[in-house]
Amino acid sequence: MPGPETAPLFEEARRLGIGFCLGYAELAEDGGARRRYNTAILVERDGRIVAKYRKIHLPGHAEHEPWRAFQHLEKRYFESGNLGFRVSDAFGGRIGMCICNDRRWPETYRVMGLQGVEMVLLGYNTPIHNPPAPEHDALSWHHNTLVMQAGAYQNATWVVGVAKGGVEEGVHQMAGTQIIAPSGETVALAVTEGDELVTADCDLDLCRSYKESVFAFHRHRQPHAYALITGTAGVVSPDQAALIDPSLGR
Amino acid sequence: MPGPETAPLFEEARRLGIGFCLGYAELAEDGGARRRYNTAILVERDGRIVAKYRKIHLPGHAEHEPWRAFQHLEKRYFESGNLGFRVSDAFGGRIGMCICNDRRWPETYRVMGLQGVEMVLLGYNTPIHNPPAPEHDALSWHHNTLVMQAGAYQNATWVVGVAKGGVEEGVHQMAGTQIIAPSGETVALAVTEGDELVTADCDLDLCRSYKESVFAFHRHRQPHAYALITGTAGVVSPDQAALIDPSLGR
Fold it and tell me: A168 by DSSP, 3-state: which?
């Protein structure tokens, strides 16, 4: 990266002094093995690639399920990223990335928040229709906004969520690109499903008032009570929970 | 508990077959030491105390700060609770509790979500004015709703947040009692600062559609990437982060 297809993008962005975040399907060679990741890179205004992120939370399923209106085979075609949720000093601040479904998980933002992130960049291609749970469809917009605003506020960071909109291969994508301040307020929003340029002046210093008060992590967080978060992936019974975190014993 | 002041509450509730959650300042004897906690208990419809919670996230400050319009000395008068975020099988479901500032922390809901919680009960006395950050005051309602709705949705649980409203000892409390469904939708809301009875039919089975799809934790969570959440209370540099979680190394 850049390859022949993306070199013109890199060249034009560098000429204009514009940085960007670019998502792509990555074929990686790790110790002789071929691995496939859902990847994003962060490119500085001078054209340098300053960070790479490999998507950690892969939604969907691993096998073809013919009853679905369309497939969602991320668990088949990718593996969970092995680079963690890193942050990078770039664009005059501390920048992190995640991808699509990652935005629904508070852990995503928190790991970056604990590294002082000031802006999280993410892209998402989210169908409005959720085949296993169509009762969620009407709430797509609410859920999308809710998780990104909460991630921004609870970690005192800007969040820039860039969406695909409109119909692609018969699938209606939800759109809703938005830029969210550390206050949890959406300050810029796409209002159509077509191509739009959504911009905002993002003063990274606005993070400070939250990072130094309600979310001054070093004064207020209590990791002694969080062991379950890293101690299990799935739901456990209260008795199993007490084996992971003895303070939960009764 | 119940003591002489609360016995009439317990008696009347039992007579009516109504359970409740009650917050109070607790003076505890732990191994000979006197300890003070900000505590809530869960009382079943037959009057039994089925769970106790001691507040974990204590906001505010530990020393008198005369510049403030009012003091917020929770860190002086209480210590962080030592019972974790437990859940209890009660009221035909799995119930958890937290208190006030706990609701702003995604870890609170997640620890209970990982134990299959179906309803989180919490009370809060939150001033509209935040002395160290008055620029947040106008957003009190947004932040309050945001964190509780996100906690509900991201953990597929009902959240019942019960607020103090109106002016007490010269401090204006934000009110905003609400009952939130696992969809992240507020289904009942107090609309004044006075006494109100806010009710909703809370079908705990509505949790299932979220617990089994987008938030099927065992299929989708990735604790390999969460080490920082339990590995540090406060913000660390990216280099320090890599010592805690080697996958963050560069």
Answer: strand
* pTM (two decimals): 0.98
Q: What is the 3-state secondary structure (H, E, C) of B6-60?
A: CHHHHHHHHHHCCCEEEEEEEEEEECCEEEEEEEEEEECCCCCEEEEEECCCCCC
Phi, psi of B158 (to 5 degrees): -70, 145
Average pLDDT over residues A130-140: 96
For residues B141-165, average pLDDT = 98
Tell me what the mean pLDDT of segment B51-65 comes to. Answer: 97
| CB-CB contact of B163 with B176 (8 Å) | yes
Cα–Cα distance for residue pair A8/A25, rounded to 1 Å: 19
Question: Are A78 and B198 in contact, with CB atoms under 8 Å apart?
Answer: no
**Helix (H, G, I), strand (E, B), or coil: what is residue A104?**
helix
CB-based contact A142 B105, cutoff 8 Å: no
Mutant choice from B53, B79, B102, B111 vs A, greatest count of A C-beta within 10 A: B111
What is the C-alpha separation between A98 and B21, in angstroms, rounded?
39
B38 - beta bridge partners?
B25
Which residue type does A140 have? S
Report whether B38 contacts B78 (CB < 8 A): yes
Cα–Cα distance, A52 to B27 (Å, whole number): 51
Kind and range of the H or E element at A22?
A: strand A20-30
Interface test with A, best of B214, B222, B237 (most A CBs within 10 A): B222
Q: Which two tokens stand for residue B39?
A: 């505590």
Q: Which residue has 């990437």 as its token pair? A: B225
CA distance B248 to B241: 7
Say which amino acid occupies B161: G
Per-residue pLDDT of B174-193, as tens digits, reads 999 999 999 999 999 999 99
Tokens 């039919």 belong to residue: B201
Identify the burial level of A148 via C-beta atoms within 10 angstroms of its C-beta, where 0-12 means exposed, 13-18 middle and 19 or more buried: buried
Partners of B167 in the β-ladder: B172
Residue of A nearest to B239 (CA): A115
Asked if this assembly's ipTM is beyond 0.90, the reply is: yes
- The owner of tokens 């300050």 is A187
Report how far residue A87's alpha carbon sits from residue B22's, in angstroms, rounded to the nearest whole number. Answer: 42
Q: Which residues from B are below 8 Å from A84, CB to CB?
A: 225, 245, 247-248
Nearest to A182 by CA among A126, A116, A124: A116
Domains and CATH numbers, chain B: 7-215 (3.60.110.10), 220-250 (no CATH)
Q: In which residue are the tokens 């957003």 written?
A: B139
- SS3 category, A187: strand
Specify whether the CB–CB gap between B29 and B11 falls below 8 A.
Answer: no
